[in-house]
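Dear Dr. K.,

Following up on our conversation at the group meeting, I've run the structure prediction for VOC family protein from Chitiniphilus purpureus. I'm pasting the input sequence below exactly as I used it, so you can double-check it against your construct before we proceed with anything downstream. Let me know if the numbering doesn't match what you have in your notebook.
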Amino acid sequence: MHKQIFVNLPVKNLERSKAFFASLGFTFNPQFTNESAACMLVGENIYAMLLVETFFQSFTKKPVANAHESTEVLVGLSCESRAEVDELVAKAFEAGGNVPREPQDHGFMYGHGFEDLDGHVWELIYMEPGAVEQG
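The predicted structure tokens came back this morning:
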């Protein structure tokens, strides 16, 4: 069995967050989506669980970070092209997200990112094929 990863993120307004990510092209598994949580399909065996803050809080005794004030996680996501990186950032901005910095072009690797409606940072990268093997 392949391992799966579930990134759990607290959100203030689940329906608004679902609409935001749907506008970026993500879909949700209805089997694991209800009024407290939504299971967003990110890739093969990769999921983001968008959890209403009160539900998220039930999993920890620590306070829930306000991602608009501090960074609790950087979610890195690979893309298939530079164009896909730019398209996702543009869609996120159009849907109400924040774009806190300019793209980073390192020749073999290109990256850009956005903050979602709750301030979580999504780092998008494209790496030229063969770049890893070349060192």
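Two things stood out to me. The domain at 5-134 is CATH 3.10.180.10 (2,3-Dihydroxybiphenyl 1,2-Dioxygenase; domain 1). DSSP finds four helices and eight strands in the chain.

Best regards,
J.T.
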